[in-house]
Fold these 2 entries.
Entry 1:
Amino acid sequence: MTCSEAPEISTMGELGTLLSWSPAQVHASTNPAIRAPPPILPPHHFYNKHLRRELILKRVLSLPFLVENLSQTATKLVDSITADELGEVPTTELSTHLQTRPRREIAGADTIADYYSISIGEVCTAIASKLLIPQSRDWGSSVCWARFTTADRTLAATGVEEHACLYVLTDKEDRNITLFPGHAELLGDRLSDWQRLAAFGPKLGTWIHLSLCPESERLLADLDHFPETSFPYKLCRTVHSSQTESTFTRPRDAASVPWSIPDKLLASASFIDSEQSNKNLRPRNQSRRSETTHNEKPRSVPSARRRPHTTAHLPSPLTAEGLVQLAWARATENNSSLIVFNCGNYERICVRHRETQTLFISPVFDVTACKDPGYIQLQVGTYTAMTLDAIARAKEAKRTPAPIRRSPRKRRNPDPTDSRAKKRQKMSIKTREKPLPPIAIASQRDMMFLTLQYGIHCSPAPASFIRAAQCLVHATKRKPNYKPPIKRSYKPEEYFELLLTSQIGDGATGVVHSANLRVVTKAGSALTHDNLVLKIAFQERQQVRMRHEYAIYQRLAEHGVTGVPQVYGLFEDLEGGAIALLMNNCGKTIWDLRPDKKRARTVITSVQRARFIEILTSVHRAGVRHCDIRAENLLIDTDGEAFIVDFDRGRFEPSEGKKKWEMEIMDVVTEGGHHDFSMPSPKFPDDDKEWWPRSPVPTPTEESDEDTPKPRRFWPATDTSNEDTDETDESNESAT
Ligand SMILES: Nc1ncnc2c1ncn2[C@@H]1O[C@H](COP(=O)(O)OP(=O)(O)OP(=O)(O)O)[C@@H](O)[C@H]1O
């Protein structure tokens, strides 16, 4: 049945009538040009393989009464509100949303999420805010629901929308809560709870929308078809004894939650069959010791013996395992306890239980057929439960500081009586006489084991990356196009380790991380080098751009250009899906360094300005045009040195006119202004000699953004769809 009509509102029971409403069925667009792409695994699933062991999902169990529980949360709050507090229900305003018909183009996961936002989200945030702050008269929303856009616009085509959530608005600078005007005063003593909530983490609940197609419905139906004892959580396949050490306290569940998990179910979730449940979480190093004999140093086994036939992320259909892993990882990142899966007409709600690392999942239900209670009541119950749970966790986290857990992995002190240790020490003294910097040693090695250790990440097993292009800083005897073979296993002196410690940027070419390097010398001493940067590219077009960026840096290195990143190599993931460019850290962008963050004006010294101009002059002299001179690509390091980064849009052999034009842009940017990239750049003689590799035609899962720079992002994201480069006029030109 469908309850497609907006409720008729009577004065009595207006709220009840609103709560009993369920939306009309949505139908896929009849326009063949508007497809509902079947969900595929998004490229960023790479990160989900690096979740901390303590945060990884171990099992999925059914929770039959979750939906009823959540509806009751709304019922209880409605029952506790007095007629006086209820005041006037803004029926006309709210029912306008309920009447909103789906647009005919509804198909993709992003349009499903947008439809949900205007027809359900707007109403439910208003009602939930009223129930949480009953004294308010205005029915304004202090909890919000939104789909957050990302810099990677190609994600819209994956058929999965994972960036929607319930949240409280916070000030970006000081993380103070921004409630609907007047609500802060009404909260009285409870205001501190909400403040704490905002500081604790403003995201309260996670939504995963899937495109409107039969594949999505099948996926939703399969979400609990796993063995109860263990969930097959996918990790990297490298065999390696990791050196990462961390103290980490698993976030706690609230002592009392607005839903109930029967004791029996909780007990069965807590039952850890160590053999069974850890089997999938155990990286291969613990199960296969074949590479270590008694007296030998442990060898590491890469994740594959062959290079993948393409390094680019291949669109593979999303499986139920993949979807659960994706949703779990997203909820972990949001630190939310509830996850809602929605594919237009069907829905499932889940509880992420932190302590037992279990996902408790409701049965699938038809959102259009919700009756007693209606769909709006269930959603309001879900919103309020999410908020109350987050407030409780924020409060408890403040009250009981969690004990600091020491990592069980300890570094062994070398045994002074160990003759091999003594020999190693002697050798290290010898090598100390002629020390090579660690980065120079790593530059001669072809295998990189990559580990993530920041936020929710602490890789249970590293990813294996093989060198695809040489270091441009330290000389190597290798031929320029040398492709190193992949060995069966690697001794410590044959590889280097890279630890990603934070994410510092996310652009059209890739995700940029800060990184530390560790190498073990032949003599056995471990050396480290901090302050590196690794940019990872996933999609084919991004990878073409990254390889081009490397080629540009190669040209600049040949011409001895300084003031640009030093590149230590390009690497390919042996499990496919990613390539990575290793560079030195050039500091912070002049955009991020602006003294007044509320203004767009950047400020640099005259010496720095002169240096930026000098660098660009030498770049031009090397026969390269940057093509993206913006405040986000001009960096200053901790010593005040200037750097120009991000050459993925760069072009070879520019005309004199184009170089002059770019220098004028540099003048504007270093004066604190911004160039308007929507302006077509003028034509000059010899422009046709300029060349650059064209990005491949976007696959159906990718949207073309040729030469469109990354929009400047705020939180929530602002609409910058009109931004464009001065190069767009040229993007249709033929190129070699
Ligand atoms: N070598 C570096 N050192 C320090 N920070 C860096 C470095 N390279 C990049 N970054 C940071 O990462 C951000 C994104 O990097 P970059 O511009 O190279 O990526 P992109 O994917 O090409 O982005 P865009 O969409 O702007 O072209 C930069 O704005 C800068 O803040």
Note: The radius of gyration is 28 Å.
Entry 2:
Amino acid sequence: MGSLNPPALPAVDFSEPNLKPGSQGWGSVKFQVRKALEDYGCFEATFNKIPIDLRKAIFKGLEELFDLPLPTKLRNISKKPFHGYVGQYPQVPLFESLGIDDANIPEKIDSVTNLFWPEGNPSFSTTMQSFAEQLSELDQIVRRMIVESLGLDKYLEEHMNSTNYLLRAMKYKGPKTTETEVGLSSHTDKNMVTILYQNQVVGLEVETKNGEWITVKPSEDSFIIMIGDSLNAWLNGRLHSPYHRVMMSGNEARYSVGLFSVPKAGYTIKAPEELIDEEHPLLFKPFDHVEFLSFYYSEEGQRVQSALKAYCGV
Ligand SMILES: O=C(O)CCC(=O)C(=O)O
Ligand SMILES: [Fe+2]
């Protein structure tokens, strides 16, 4: 028998103006973050720092970006899989995506903008810069709360310095049929933490530990925060990294944009000894994220159920 209420993600409110480490509000939000990430690996964060004008500019920018001719979009090439232009895949024909590496560095956003619009597009560039800046603040708040709540304060600096930011824009065309179609296949993220923001078209689904799919319906003010495999491994499995997918129906396009904190090349992801004991034996051998990604995109990596377990599971 199904439950009466459709399952929903936990919601955590980050809009308190004085949300500072050590304050009472901080302690209570930290507790909710930890609980949500243990149980679901994901939650909806309310964070009212994105003014309406910025919100509108983001979606206008995403439309302009994906409306560019394909050869222009293909100028965005990255050495790392899934960081440049991705699209025109027969398995996921509705999906297209464009990434900007090191999105916390304004010049990087400028240089990718200039690739697409050689005559410049300052409105696009400044919109994406301020969006990345606001969201990287949220990423750092959440990661600090996680580190503190697991008693790993002595690793805080190392952990915060272990990542870069990838900003990635996604478009999913409406399938324009009565059927629901796969926009993006089920997967776990491979990075540390993902923050997603989307227009009003629903489509993201997150799987619970019981195998139920939650349809995510964020408000205009909310972001979806999700744990990736790298953080799951670093924390020796203490937090869950959920499977999720995008399912599309109807005519309207879904636009989303994600800020992904991604381990730097050369940084070894190795669980702190404080998280390993008899009750919690080591789950994953130390690994490098770039090498893990190469495995994930190999034939074997695509075939196995969990690339993380197959790659470095103990
Ligand atoms: O579009 C979305 O909301 C989800 C995208 C996603 O799962 C991903 O890029 O890894
Ligand atoms: Fe994802």
Note: The chain is about 35% helix and 25% strand.
